[in-house]
Specification:
Structural class: alpha+beta
Order of helices and strands: EEEEEEEHEHH
Number of helices: 3
Shape: globular
Number of domains: 1
Strand content: 25-35%
Radius of gyration: 15 Å
Helix content: 10-25%
Length: 150
């Protein structure tokens, strides 16, 4: 579980502050033992008005804004699935998670989570490259993503 490029839907996702809600979860990196680096895609649009929203990386150094935009018209998985609405993966929100804690919280496929699919290789590479441009990405996360075998 949590292989890089796998898109999950948690029902619900348990946030560290105690809140919970259904949430997509994209695994970007895993060392197979302790760490999973992931993005929690969002339908909330925080894109600055001066940036053109086109599928792909949105990076604006002057405003320290970084996101990967997924258009609902473009399939992102190998089985041609696309997000049902405009979706944003924000570099600022890329986090590392404990593999042990994730596996304890999400044990039963079809009950705790669904596997949506595997991202197309070029899509996954583009997302990771986009996040590596972010100045707001934590150094630990940047180091882990830089070591991903893509």
């Amino acid at each position: 579980m949590f292989e890089p490029g796998t898109l999950y839907y948690f029902k619900p996702f348990y946030f560290s502050d105690g809140t919970q809600k259904p949430k997509y979860f994209l695994s970007l990196y895993s060392d197979g033992k302790t760490v999973v680096v992931a993005s929690l895609p969002s339908s909330v649009d925080y894109v600055p008005g001066h940036l053109e929203k086109k599928h792909g990386c949105l990076n604006d150094l002057p405003s320290d804004f970084n996101a990967y935009y997924c258009s609902p018209d473009i399939a992102v998985t190998t089985d041609d699935w696309s997000f049902p609405t405009h979706t944003y993966l924000y570099g600022l929100w890329v986090k590392d998670f404990s593999l042990q804690e994730l596996e304890a919280a999400y044990q039963v496929e079809g009950v705790d989570y669904e596997i949506i699919g595997l991202l197309k290789k070029d899509e996954l590479v583009a997302i990771i490259r986009c996040f590596l441009k972010a100045r707001t990405l934590k150094n630990k996360v940047k180091r882990l993503l830089s070591n991903s075998k893509l």
